[in-house]
């Protein structure tokens, strides 16, 4: 009988074929989109590698200067550096050192901790350096609030010791390795999948575009 038959009605079979066709088209569309992004990523990586291998102009050897450029370099620039650029840079350096010593800070304490590389470097700090950095900053905040400064007898230190420099370099290598493992694929970077941008920072809502 018709009631006991396992065959589907023609309308149901047509709907099933239509759904199967739509699913195939969707898969083909996704495959084409992914192949486009993959090709784009490969092209960007190839171009970036070619540009990265170029030696900057200020590091190139054997660059021939014109007669005017050579004359300026030999006669004008020494005078400019002696009377203008040198004293100005020395004043800026001494002014920065005096400001840091007044609050007992190091120069690396003033870096923006919301910047991805600096944030990663701070995470890599050993316990003693991290605690010292935190205490110096809290002491500076308190002195700034109380309109005071560090005692003069305690300002005899060099604030330009780059204690954060090796950890910044390690953070650069780590982030570069992570990007190479992801192969710069947009579908693996997970941009704005949460309260972070996906460009390297780990603190939630730390950038303006994630507020």
Automatic annotation (TrEMBL):
It is found in: Mitochondrion inner membrane. It is a peripheral membrane protein. One of its GO terms (cellular component) is mitochondrial inner membrane. Gene3D superfamilies: Cytochrome b-c1 complex subunit 7. Keywords: Electron transport, Membrane, Mitochondrion, Mitochondrion inner membrane, Respiratory chain, Transport. The keyword Oxidoreductase does not apply. One of its GO terms (biological process) is mitochondrial electron transport, ubiquinol to cytochrome c. It comes from Alexandrium andersonii. SUPFAM superfamilies: 14 kDa protein of cytochrome bc1 complex (Ubiquinol-cytochrome c reductase). PANTHER family: CYTOCHROME B-C1 COMPLEX SUBUNIT 7, UBIQUINOL-CYTOCHROME C REDUCTASE COMPLEX 14 KD PROTEIN. This is Ubiquinol-cytochrome c reductase complex 14 kDa protein. Belongs to the UQCRB/QCR7 family. The keyword Transcription regulation does not apply.
